[in-house]
Amino acid sequence: MRIVLVGPPGAGKGTQAAFLAKNLSIPHISTGDLFRANISQQTELGKLAKSYMDAGNLVPDEVTIGMAKDRMEKPDAENGFLLDGFPRNVSQAEALDEMLKSEGMKLDAVLDLEVPEDEVVKRIAGRRICRKDSSHVFHVTYSPPKADGVCDACGGELYQREDDSEDTVRKRLEVYHTQTEPIIDYYKAQGLVVTISALGKVDEVTKRAMSALKGDE
């Protein structure tokens, strides 16, 4: 299957992408991983992306599209892939369609993870990270530490990242509504969108997604 995963920040796209890709035996292709791999390997696209990023500028669509194209041409993606974070806007979606068409392929589904805006804010703004070890992550509501502000694992101080503040989250949501959400309508016109609720436990959402992709819902 060739799937695009969409949803607002805090919808759990990365978590669901990993589980779905494993269940479907297809690679999980995330924009973040693409950028990290190309920059660390110093590919031509990676160098180009880094030059824009170092200058504080947005990386042009054609660079992101080029990275995605290279990755989708790898042998492990021959039978499908799950795209996470790409396409990010309608022009990228159009480019993806052209890319697949030129290879005689097309998307099978666009999975839209639906989460109420207030829940997104609650999920992200409630995160607390350990200063000693950033892999230790807590949540004031869903997984609170035993002692307020103290990491259970190492006793480090817990803090809220600037990116996780409510103001920042709401700004990220505005960007999502303006830039990324329009691709849902773009794909709805092609009859590809499958919308599911991303509320509940991780495994519940995964089962919901698998059922929807199989056409059981």
From TrEMBL:
GO biological process: AMP salvage
Keywords noted in UniProt: ATP-binding, Cytoplasm, Kinase, Nucleotide biosynthesis, Nucleotide-binding, Transferase
Primary enzyme class: transferase
Pfam families with a match to the protein in the record: ADK, ADK_lid
Origin: domain of life: Bacteria
Keyword Lipid metabolism (UniProt): no
GO cellular component, one term: cytoplasm
Region (NMP): 30-59
Molecular function terms, GO-annotated: AMP kinase activity; ATP binding
Record EC number: 2.7.4.3
Binding site for ATP: 10-15, 127, 137-138, 200
Pathways involved: Purine metabolism; AMP biosynthesis via salvage pathway; AMP from ADP: step 1/1
Coiled coil: none
Function, as annotated: Catalyzes the reversible transfer of the terminal phosphate group between ATP and AMP. Plays an important role in cellular energy homeostasis and in adenine nucleotide metabolism.
Complex and partners: Monomer.
Record-linked NCBIfam families: adk (TIGR01351), PRK00279.1-2 (NF001380), PRK00279.1-3 (NF001381), PRK14527.1 (NF011100)
Domain description: Consists of three domains, a large central CORE domain and two small peripheral domains, NMPbind and LID, which undergo movements during catalysis. The LID domain closes over the site of phosphoryl transfer upon ATP binding. Assembling and dissambling the active center during each catalytic cycle provides an effective means to prevent ATP hydrolysis.
Name of the featured protein: Adenylate kinase
Organism: Streptomyces aurantiacus JA 4570
